[in-house]
Structure formats: C-alpha cells, structure tokens
Automatic annotation (TrEMBL):
The keyword Repeat applies. Pfam families: CH. Keywords: Actin-binding, Repeat. The keyword Repeat applies. SMART domains: CH (SM00033). Residues 14-118 form the Calponin-homology (CH) domain. This is Calponin-homology (CH) domain-containing protein. It comes from Cynoglossus semilaevis. GO terms for molecular function: actin binding. InterPro entries: Actinin_actin-bd_CS, CH_dom, CH_dom_sf.
Length: 124
C-alpha cells in the first residue's frame, strides 16, 4: 500500500466517524444525551444501550454500574445481545472489539445499526 492509499483510507474513516457521530447524536438528543468521540464514548456500553433504546422504543437491561473493563464488556454485550435478538447479523464482532475502541468494527457496528433502524425500521 502506498501513502496515498493510507491517506484516503484515513480520510474516509474520519468522514465516517464524523457522519456517524452526528447521526448518533441526532437520536441521543431525544433523551438529552450526546457523544463527542464515537470510539471513546461507546466503549463503556452505556450510550450504546441508550441509543438502542431510543431507536427501538424498547427497554434494554439496565447498564452495569462501574468503570472496570468487565463492566464495560457486560454493557456492550447487553447491547450486542439485543441486536442479535432483533436478528441483526454481527459477524466477527464481539464486545471486546467495541470496549477496546476498534475503529473499523465500531464504525461497522454503527453502520449496521443505521441499516437496521433507519433504512428498514422495525415492522414486526
């Protein structure tokens, strides 16, 4: 890969991050919440759970209190489990990927959520 390819990949990721952050905030604003950094602010799972509640109109399991890694993993796992129950396909993604701030998989998760709740709203 040459430097131009890396640059355009980084630029594309930055645009996606900015766009997805705005999309998330447009929904979180309904419950007076917002995020500033997509990768950091979803890591503990609390905002992810809140986002899914806003989008689905359903109550998810209450987030685990605490800031330790195990608490973050539990919260993200609650969100991912909810998505699986909604028949959302999450291939090669685990709660550790989001907690660790994996950029590519965090963007992929938000894109999957957009496709599920924005493009094809629940009609069941």
């Amino acid at each position: 890969m040459n430097n131009n390819t890396l640059y355009f990949g980084d630029e594309r990721e930055a645009v996606q991050k900015k766009t997805f952050t705005k999309w998330v905030n447009s929904h979180l604003s309904r419950v007076s919440c917002r995020i500033t950094d997509l990768y950091m602010d979803l890591r503990d799972g609390r905002m992810l759970i809140k986002l899914l509640e806003v989008l689905s109109g359903e109550r998810l399991p209450k987030p685990t209190k605490g800031r330790m890694r195990i608490h973050c993993l539990e919260n993200v796992d609650k969100a991912l489990q909810f998505l699986k129950e909604q028949r959302v396909h999450l291939e090669n993604m685990g709660s550790h990927d989001i907690v660790d701030g994996n950029h590519r998989l965090t963007l992929g998760l938000i894109w999957t959520i957009i496709l599920r709740f924005q493009v094809t709203p629940s009609t069941c």
